[in-house]
Amino acid sequence: AFLDLHGPSEIKGVWKKSITLPCAYVPVENLVQQTLAWTVAHDKGSGTIFRRDDSGDHVLLSEYRGRVSIPKDAPGNVSLLILSLEISDRGTYTCQVTWRDSNNSLIAKEITTRLEVVKVAATKPVIRGGERGLALPAGASTSLSCEAGGSPPISYRWFRSGPAGRAELLSSGAELAWPSLRPSDSGTYFCEARNR
């Protein structure tokens, strides 16, 4: 029986977002997974993040508690999901699996993946109008929402074109809402997205 773990040697994650560190094998008959461990080496030292054995799943490093998981019912998929990446999560991660064969001997394999955590600038935002479009009768209610990509947190500001090309700041927040439109609300609106 031939067993191998598969996963990338390097992966980039985005600060404050989640990332999956892939580690997988094709299950082989007569080979039973005994233990699975994910370890890390980074600035804060090294240690075992996660261990799965007969007694269950254990998260051993406190800074990963509540932030890591591994698929439960996916034979061969032992990838590590990390939520809400911190810059300090960058480092070298090792996926180690041991199997027991029909003669009760153990086989062990491991792969390592280097994780880099990056910050991504806010993208140019897009504005979405309500379902009924951008031409509405007075008295109707509507809203515009602003969406941008990039590393959270992203903050938004809404402006309206004023006289002589000046921009008037209306509000902050991703949504601009009108409970009851007036003719004077007609105009050109724009939105700014920024992050750190």
UniProtKB/TrEMBL annotation:
One of its GO terms (biological process) is negative regulation of T cell proliferation. It comes from the Eukaryota. GO terms for molecular function: complement component C3b binding. Residues 17-112, 125-196 form the Ig-like domain. PROSITE patterns: IG_LIKE (PS50835). SUPFAM superfamilies: Immunoglobulin (SSF48726). This is VSIG4 protein. It comes from Irena cyanogastra (Philippine fairy-bluebird). The gene is Vsig4_1.
